[in-house]
């Protein structure tokens, strides 16, 4: 099921939130500030109160007050008090925190309340320890196809980010309406139905794959490859790798699809793309299948939970302090007005497209829907995440995401870097692609039709990233 949203249909929003007098938004990480403000703005003058709940003494209290949530107005309070008061509890604290505190959170919720999740991580954890959600609450998911800052930025541009929705548990028959109303109120133009299990598997997998981890590893390896050529400057190497993916390659895919990217190349460039694609597809797919298996088995979820404990002693380090990002990337960004957008580098395009297509194939083999596959492998990358790397570098993209995503990107990016350097580029010169069945499969793949349909539902404007 696909639902078209319109947050200006206030009467329908009120109907969808029937029985909901207060929405508690718990947490102020990546999604919390965006969803709380979008809900507040969409539900202004409806009588539905949007209240932010944070830990007592949290440093985020001041951030919430700065954008208008206050104790005096009844829109800001202590986390468990807000959970207990609210009819819809949107739980947006970190995944590791959800795992640590889920028993207390469930205990604080009033009977017949609705628990809202923007990620199915908690379901995955409960399944791994053979536990379930309480039987006296409904459980729904609304999962924006982009990081929190994008959710707010596009809302402010009178647009929005598409969402998936899922109903995991419905005790009174109202859960579907509430989930759809929630998605519409945070600005989703289109809402795609999924299951919470499929959502968390595709999401955790996708951010370790082409959305974050893979693209980081790919551009690092390709940058070093281009730098090693004597006729290429460090700035040109950056333009041929990172700037190429976030600029002309993403733009071409966003507007014309992956096949459109291919068709935009000259014949001699297509020959280079073909070789790169054929060389990259199998190593990428093998690594992506490993990631999916790690997620589906619960290993990746346990890894995040254990990392949450280590982060107290060893906080996440920076990922953009190298010369590539700190000097070359900065100089390229500062010179854009003078140099313009670089031409598409076919080697980079072939490696990136092969990784995308491998991710598509892994998800399809695991039974995911085309809408989920296109969003988690292509659309979220080019329309939501890559613009952040284009604006300020890889850290601005990765570290605006959830802790789970940040951990996964740091863990798996080096594996993709290794695959490109040790498995792909070393074979690149010795592959004959013109008769390879992989290229024929790429050209005739069903994803091109599915992506064309999904792209009809993309936001009418590109995200503006400062």
Automatic annotation (TrEMBL):
- Keyword Transport part of the UniProt annotation: no
Look up the record and name the pathway of this protein: Amino-acid biosynthesis; L-isoleucine biosynthesis; L-isoleucine from 2-oxobutanoate: step 2/4; Amino-acid biosynthesis; L-valine biosynthesis; L-valine from pyruvate: step 2/4
The reply on keyword Metal-binding is: yes
InterPro entries assigned = 6-PGluconate_DH-like_C_sf, 6PGD_dom2, KARI, KARI_C, KARI_N, NAD(P)-bd_dom_sf
List cofactor names only: Mg(2+)
Keyword annotations of the record: Amino-acid biosynthesis, Branched-chain amino acid biosynthesis, Isomerase, Magnesium, Metal-binding, Oxidoreductase
Mind listing the GO biological process terms from this record? isoleucine biosynthetic process; L-valine biosynthetic process
Extract the GO molecular function terms from the UniProt entry: isomerase activity; ketol-acid reductoisomerase activity; metal ion binding
Q: Where is the KARI N-terminal Rossmann domain?
A: 1-194
Query: Organism's domain of life?
Result: Bacteria
Q: Which family does it belong to?
A: Belongs to the ketol-acid reductoisomerase family.
PANTHER family, per the entry: KETOL-ACID REDUCTOISOMERASE, MITOCHONDRIAL
- The name on file for this protein is Acetohydroxy-acid isomeroreductase
Q: What is the taxonomic lineage of the source species?
A: Bacteria, candidate division WS5
């Amino acid at each position: 099921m696909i639902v078209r949203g319109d947050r200006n249909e206030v009467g329908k929003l009120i109907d969808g939130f029937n029985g909901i007098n207060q929405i508690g938004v718990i947490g102020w990480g990546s999604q919390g500030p965006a969803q709380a403000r979008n809900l507040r703005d969409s539900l202004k003058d409806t009588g539905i109160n949007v209240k932010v709940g944070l830990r007592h003494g949290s440093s985020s209290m001041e951030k919430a007050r700065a954008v208008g949530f206050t104790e005096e107005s009844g829109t800001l309070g202590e986390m468990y008090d807000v959970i207990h008061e609210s009819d819809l509890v949107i739980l947006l604290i970190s995944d590791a925190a959800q795992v640590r505190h889920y028993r207390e959170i469930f205990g604080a919720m009033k009977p017949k309340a609705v628990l809202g999740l923007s990620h199915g991580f908690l379901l995955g954890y409960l399944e791994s320890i053979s536990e379930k959600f309480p039987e006296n609450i409904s459980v729904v998911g609304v999962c924006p196809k982009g990081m929190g800052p994008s959710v707010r930025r596009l809302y402010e541009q009178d647009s929005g980010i598409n969402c998936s929705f899922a109903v995991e548990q419905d005790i009174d028959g109202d859960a579907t309406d509430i989930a759809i109303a929630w998605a519409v109120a945070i600005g989703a133009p289109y809402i795609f139905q999924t299951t919470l299990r499929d959502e968390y598997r595709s999401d955790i997998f996708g951010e370790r794959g082409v959305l974050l981890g893979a693209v980081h590893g790919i551009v690092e390896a390709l940058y070093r490859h281009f730098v090693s050529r004597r006729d290429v400057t460090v700035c040109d190497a950056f333009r041929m790798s990172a700037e190429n993916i976030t600029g002309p390659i993403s733009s071409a895919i966003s507007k014309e699809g992956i096949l459109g990217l291919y068709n935009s190349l000259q014949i001699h460039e297509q020959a280079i793309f073909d070789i790169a694609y054929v060389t990259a597809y199998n190593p990428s797919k093998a690594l992506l299948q490993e990631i999916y298996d790690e997620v589906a088995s619960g290993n990746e979820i346990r890894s995040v939970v254990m990392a949450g404990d280590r982060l107290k002693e060893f906080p996440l380090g920076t990922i953009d302090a190298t010369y590539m990002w700190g000097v070359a990337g900065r100089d390229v960004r500062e010179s854009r007005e003078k140099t313009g957008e670089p031409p598409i580098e076919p080697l980079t395009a072939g490696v990136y497209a092969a990784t995308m297509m491998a991710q598509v194939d892994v998800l399809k083999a695991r039974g995911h829907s085309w809408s989920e596959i296109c969003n988690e492998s292509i659309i979220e990358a080019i329309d939501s995440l890559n613009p952040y790397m284009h604006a300020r570098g890889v850290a601005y993209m990765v570290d605006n995401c959830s802790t789970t995503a940040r951990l996964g990107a740091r863990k798996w990016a080096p594996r993709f870097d290794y695959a490109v350097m040790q498995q792909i580029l070393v074979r690149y010169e010795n592959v004959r692609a013109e008769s390879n069945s992989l290229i024929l499969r790429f050209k005739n793949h069903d994803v091109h039709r599915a992506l064309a349909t999904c792209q009809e539902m993309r936001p009418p404007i590109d995200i503006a990233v400062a």
